[in-house]
Structures are given as C-alpha cells and as structure tokens.
C-alpha cells in the first residue's frame, strides 16, 4: 500500500452535499468529485467532476505502479513500458479489478524531471500525452469501479460557461501569467469558482476530447494571459509539444515541451437501480442540484 505520497485530492467532502470522495484501492489517496447538476433544459446530463486538476501523487501512482502491494524500490527511476496492475486483492471484487488492471499499459517512466521543479506532491501533474491521460482514466476506472474519462470539449465548455456567469474574478480563481510567477501552483490554492471547481481556467491547460476523438487542451495555463485563459482558450495536440525529446522513437506518453498541459477528469453519473431507495448522499446531491438550478434562474 502506498503511504506518504503527499496530500490527497480531497480533504473532506463526504458530508458536503454534491461532493464525494472516491478512494483509490491499494493507496492512501482519494479524489474529490463535485456533482454538477444537469441544466434546467435537460440538454446534457449531470456529471461528477474532479474538484481540482489531477496532482502528481495520484498520477505517480498510475505511472509507477504504486497501487501494487510491493512497488519497486526505485519507483522514481527509469523503466520500460509495461502492462501491470494492482494485486492487493482482499475481496473477490478487488481480485477482479486487479485482473482487469493487469491489461492496462502504464506509461514508460519519464527520463527527465517532468515536474520541471515547479513542485510535486499537491501540484498538478503535467506533460502527459493525450494517450497517457486516457490510459490514466482507464486505470482509475478499473481500480475504483467507476467510469472515469476525460471531458468532452462540449462538457468542459458548459462547465466553464456556468462558472463564469456567477464566479469570482479570473485573477482570484486562476493562476495565469500575471500572478503565477511563471510556474504552476498547488492544486486548490486559488479560490474555487461558482461550481466549486478549482483552476478550471489557468494553472494547467486541461486535456479534453474533441468531436473527432482527438485531444485538445482548454482553459489556458500559468503562462497565458487573461485573454488566452478563458472558456474559448483551446490548443490542439501538436508534435511541437514533444519536439525536443531526444528518444527515437519519441515518447508516446510524455511531452517534453508541454509543461503547461495537465488534466481534469469526469465521471458519468450512474443511473439509480430500479426500485432502489435514495441514499442520504443522493438526497444531498438533489438538494444541491435544486439550489444550483435556482441560482441559474435567478436574475
């Protein structure tokens, strides 16, 4: 079991309506999700969204196999691409998840210090490729039994638009060129927006899935101006983000020239089983959704 990987994504959210903390089996880590209710017109479904961008300690767990019971002592060192998974099976469910996780190919371990010296535990993971971001979601889905994925461009844009309609000023909730000091900042250190999300704009640009299935990053980053850090800030995946990689062939997992790229994840909201009674958490989320929708309708 991994202990001492730094702060978890969530501090405490089990009792907060509309929030949930998802534990990652085999580790001391968890991810805080914020329930974003469906809009009043029903044009899109409700969505669980990670409260912050994914920090290094969580991404390290995926890359270095730290969810395994006997992780290699040189987890921070070099290595080769491998298909491994968690083997801390304490129940039949754990054993099944571990078996499925064995089929998930983990990235090669980075040959450089990919955190650029910005900060590690508690700071946003950066420089992962679109392929790496998607593989992380697949691994996390298997380990937790939930359906995690990258947001689509439409989903991310909807979140951003809702947040900007009734949010705090950009410079208070986003680390951009004017206030970042030229580096990423600890996740959750800026004010949350009106949806309860941190750094939706700024800090790191976030991987999303375009309509054609390719990867784009949205929201701008610590090195962008305010004008390039809003809901319309989009950059397409480009070979230039890995131009200086000396390896041949170049890494498909890491982007040597994209310290501004990171990720946030979303989770599809499961439909309640037919005839099942709502839980206290369900009731809390329903109350939060009603309150949020009421706020949206208010002038």
For the record, the CATH architecture stands as: Alpha-Beta Complex
Strand order of the largest sheet: 1-2-3-11-6
How can the largest sheet be summarized?
5 strands, antiparallel
What overall geometry do the principal axes of the alpha carbons give? globular
- Our Rg estimate from Cα atoms comes to 19 Å
Instruction: Report, as a whole number of angstroms, the end-to-end distance.
Output: 51 Å
Quaternary status of these chains? single chain
Number of helices: 6
- How many DSSP-defined strands? 11
Query: Any idea how many domains?
Result: 1
- Parts with pLDDT < 50 across at least 5 consecutive residues: 1-15, 73-90, 274-299
CATH H-level superfamily: paralog of FGE (formylglycine-generating enzyme)
CATH class wording? Alpha Beta
User: pLDDT average, as an integer?
Assistant: 80
Give me the CATH fold name: paralog of FGE (formylglycine-generating enzyme)
H/E order of the elements? EEEHEHEHEHHEEEEEH
Structural class: alpha+beta
Beta-strand portion reads: 5-15%
Helix content: 10-25%
